[in-house]
Amino acid sequence: MRFKLLPVVALLACAPPARAQRAPGRGPVNVPPDVLSQVCAPTLAFEAPPAPLRVTGSQEAKVRTTMAPGDLITINAGSDNGIEVGQRYFARRPIPLERGETGRDNPLILHTAGWILIYAVDDRMSLATIEHACDAVQLNDYLEPFALPVVPSALPGRPQAQRSNYGRVLSGTDNRATFGTGDYMMVDRGSDHGVALGAQFVVYRDKLEDGNFLFELADAMAVDVRPETSTLRVTRSIDGVKVGDYVALRK
Q: Which label site among 46, 58, 143, 241 has the fewest CB atoms less than 10 Å from its CB?
């Protein structure tokens, strides 16, 4: 199999056969920290995403299932599929919220592992290198076109929370269940409930004490909004937020 390679890829032929082949080192990723942080934020889906492009292996003598920045990986598409040297793709994987069939009662967490850079292409396969990692890229991760997110600013003002329309904290990256300032979490409120990018939320906990108010835990802001769910970034926390805590939109 002959690849259309960048000139420097010819150096790979000199790599010791018992070690992983690696792409030449690159400088730091020139992306603002707040954008990088949001790249790695999770989202929810009620059905498996279409995923024709996938990570299919690594360029190493032994079989590997996890790969890190600089590793060369293979993907199952090439020039016949419109893949070109220099393109970038996000590597993502769906993680069920709970065991069982995916659906409205058991959505998928769409976890971003990082992004890859196409390094060499053949007709039906390509080589890529992991340019940035949120964590390890895994065998069978699916690929989506690369586009950096826009980091929203909080909507102006600080209106009262809508206490008649509480939502719930669902989960976080890798089914994370606790959150603090700067963390991302998903809630069951989206654009169908009046949420917009930059919308402000208050997070509450019901301490199950008769005759008492809900306890205010944190403030959060919507950074990704879908029709029925949103991803929030915790902007201020008084105490740790947990899955199942209440959220109320400031509106």
A: 46
83-121: burial string, b at 16+ Cβ within 10 Å, e else: bebebbbbbbbbeebeeeebeeeebbbbbbbbbbbbbbb
Q: Are 154 and 249 in contact (CB under 8 A)?
A: no
Tens of each residue's pLDDT in the chain, 251 residues: 444 544 334 334 433 444 555 655 555 578 899 999 999 999 999 998 888 999 999 887 778 889 888 889 999 999 999 999 999 999 999 998 888 888 888 899 999 999 999 999 999 999 999 999 999 999 999 999 999 999 999 888 888 888 878 999 999 988 889 999 999 999 999 999 999 999 999 999 998 888 778 899 999 999 999 999 999 999 999 999 999 999 999 98
Whole-angstrom distance, CA of residue 45 vs CA of residue 47: 6
The CB density around residue 154, as the number of other CB atoms within 10 Å, is 15
Question: d(Cα 159, Cα 66) in Å, to the nearest integer?
Answer: 46
Max CA pair span of the chain: 74
**Full DSSP string of 178-244:** EE-TT-EEEES--GGGT--TT-EEEEEE----TT-PPEEEEEEEEEEE-SS-EEEEEEEESS-EETT
CA dihedral 93, 125, 80, 39 (to 10 degrees): 30
Contact 217, 204 (CB under 8 A): yes
Query: If we measure between CA atoms, which residue out of 104, 107, 113 comes closest to residue 146?
Result: 113
Determine the Cα–Cα distance for residues 145 and 129; give it in Å rounded to an integer.
15
Residue with tokens 């082949």: 21
Structural domain spans, the chain: 21-145, 167-249
